[in-house]
Amino acid sequence: MSFDITIFALLHVLVFVYWLGGDLGAFYTSRFLTEPGVSPERRLLAAKIVGDVDMAPRTALILALPTGLVLALSKGWIDGPLWWGWLALGIGLVWLTIAWKLHFAHGSNSLINRVDLAIRWVLALALLGAGVASLQGALILPVFISLKLILLAAAILMGLYIRITLKPLGPALAGLSGTNAAGAEASLAHTLNRARPLVIAIWVFLLSAALLGLWTPSTL
Question: Average model confidence (pLDDT) for the chain?
């Protein structure tokens, strides 16, 4: 294996490490949002920490496809020029900039938010379509790459569903210092309890994709 391919493989592995590790950190820290006896100030601090830590898996998700494409082209798993991968990496960095701008704006920039959502929907549907088309023989891709495309699409779509599920989180956090703090705590717990199984589903997708990357089956 050449040094270049080794670097590309390392980058793709780091995507997995930071995605799963960041998700685990955010998942664990989110417990403090619903732990009894925690003051509203500490809950808000925990929410901020969760949001900051969650940028690791958000970043990893964005870089998963371009690093994987560069690696696949370098190894000859996908037939095409290497500049396809560099182009994908450049587009990924632009999307990554959008995601971080949205994070620092605390989701208040509606235009950036719409752009980010549009990218996620288009990419998820494109990956799903490419994966299914390849499995049906319409595209020439290794089976493990086709399945990984479908799993990445599933992770993106699950992430979008988690966003919808977590919509009551902001009002619940704001209500912790209000007159109906008990109701806000109940809403907070209910929202997070609904979201946690969805996060675990993403871990299943992620671990399945990692297994396929190590196994690299050529047929079903």
Answer: 95
Domain span including residue 207: 3-215
What's the CA gap between 183 and 189, in Å, rounded? 10
Q: Does residue 144 lie in a domain region?
A: yes
Specify the pLDDT at position 220. 64
| Number of compact structural domains in the chain | 1
Over the range 205-214, which residues count as b (16 or more CB within 10 Å of their CB) and which as e?
bbebbbebbe
Identify the segments of the chain with pLDDT beneath 50: none
CA torsion sign for 101, 68, 21, 118 is positive
Task: Look at residue 190 and tell me if it is in a domain.
Answer: yes
- Written as six digits, the tokens of 215 are 């196994």
Does 220 reside within a domain? no
